[in-house]
Predict the structure.
Amino acid sequence: MPLPLHPCCAAGAAATPAMATTAGSCNASSTPPPRYLGSGQGRLRLAPAASRRNSPLLRCSASGGDGPDKVLEKRRAELTARISSGEFTAQGPGWLAPVAARLAKLGPPGELAAGLLTKVAGGERRGPELPQAVGSLASVAGEAFFLPLYDLFLTYGGVFRLNFGPKSFLIVSDPDVAKHILRDNSKAYSKGILAEILEFVMGTGLIPADGEVWRVRRRAIVPALHQKYVTAMIGLFGNASDRLCQKLDKAASDGEDVEMESLFSRLTLDVIGKAVFNYDFDSLSYDNGIVEAVYVTLREAEMRSTSPIPTWEIPIWKDISPRQRKVNEALALINNILDELIATCKRMVDEEDLQFHEEYMNEKDPSILHFLLASGDDVSSKQLRDDLMTMLIAGHETSAAVLTWTFYLLSKYPNVMSKLQAEADAVLGDGLPTLDDVKKLKYTTRVINESLRLYPQPPVLIRRSLEDDMLGEYPIGKGEDIFISIWNLHRCPKHWDDADVFNPERWPLDGPNPNETNQKFSYLPFGGGPRKCVGDMFATFETVVATAMLVKRFDFQMAPGAPPVEMTTGATIHTTKGLNMTVTRRIKPPVIPNLEMKIVSDSEGSTSSTASVAVSTASIASGEGQQVEVSTSQV
Ligand code: HEM
């Protein structure tokens, strides 16, 4: 896979063999279920398979460079046909009820046996049986795992069980059920597989942690991302974005195409290093050992999350495998640096003369680490390291993926790009953006909201049930592994008009910022409930600032001959071959002299022009040929 995962949430999801299952070839067959959408009540009848095949709903692949990705579309159509044929449909345990009834007629011992059989074979039934699909690892392997889940959702509904071999997963795409798991009964669910996969890198950091550890750490970390801190970060976002602009400027001069996905990854790594523990990776400028170590670690987490065989657990092999040795060395290097940063920061806190309060911030080092230490956070060094590492990964991959898919979408929707550029021209001055500017970048914010709807990062959240529960009308037992598909929720045709269309206008500029509450859990790019993302405001500002600054200075087009843009996972959605773009400087508006300009000569006798009324407006053609209103300041 191209780039590291964002274990933030769904990382592992993709991770588990379950993914592969969904993508897999299927063996059990029986009558296919009716082609309905939605779970429980209010089901919506789907169009026949043949017409769905041509429907945009099935165009889940992104197509780039040279045009539509015919290959992926064909695969999707084939998968739809296979689902329709009932290939994925599991035999329901229809035999269970009659057998149990006969046993029960044999008196108390028979009743006991019937009870046991029901428990062992199917669980005690407190409601209707869950729709079931069956798969095996294989045929659709390599495809982004959440794509087949979408087709299965349209067929089997908002909650269904996906079986493969002895394992099974519940796939949730129903907003009410998602709300139940994430918010209303969140105590009954843990991070399950996710915590197991990420243990080697995040330990008991905030994302994988459960129970008391999570409660204590969340209470310590959330206050660190207070309003004043996030506002201070806007300068950091601007600085890092400016560094990226300089890189792009050079590429534009040299006539070189750029691979934007890796550049966005570097941009967000530089940002998050400073923001979390005041470390300048400066990965936009050059590769050094620590940057390499971060990527080795992230790639390993991604590999673990998608590998069907946990080779890293095999005794002896795990110690001698060159790959594992490299990972261990990378982790050791990062841990040493984190230990040093913690020690330096402790010294700074000891020496400083600042009173700790709610919006405490050290101007020289406003990092989260500094806040935590100054707050007197009573925590072991290992836990602190786990938390820092968790935030580094969580805040890096997600934002990079959001920017990547936003720019991909912008290249496909030039009308949106024009509006975006017009807003950036109107709002941003020559300096770095301020909080006031960010508040005025309303359309840019809607573009990010909409990009997150179409490409949620991560596309799936993972949970495990800690007790018996009801998911809608369906009873489930303790220990069920659950994938909540954000992808499916965000593209459900029952909830969204033109679900596949990138349409930032669907969110009114003067309306509230869309979130899980006002969208009734049909839109949850930052999750929901007590485990909602702690960095939502940070990430929104970061991506808004970067997008506005980049589009103000450049036009972006898919590079001629670039490979088609296809999706793959990690935890976030990556491209398979990068996002190769041609970047051109936007044409600067001409300086139009007006009558009020006067020529003055300075004491040395040289002349310069000054403007008594210094602003005129020119309408210029941008690279796309669209007209943009630009305000020009004269010198
Ligand atoms: C656009 C960028 C981001 C997106 C889309 C995003 C998305 C998410 C989502 C969906 C969750 C919920 C996971 C779950 O319920 O399983 C989450 C949790 C989390 N995110 Fe983010 N995130 C982003 C940026 C950030 C940043 C910048 C930080 C840190 C500064 C961060 C730190 C965290 C942490 C610590 C959690 C775990 C919270 C908990 O379990 O209590 N995220 N994120």
About this structure: Residues 93-119 form one domain. The mean pLDDT is 79. Residues 8-9, 206-207, 218, 390-391, 394-395, 398-399, 402, 457, 461, 525-527, 531, 533-535, 538-539 surround protoporphyrin IX containing FE (CB under 6 Å). The chain has 22 helices and 19 strands.
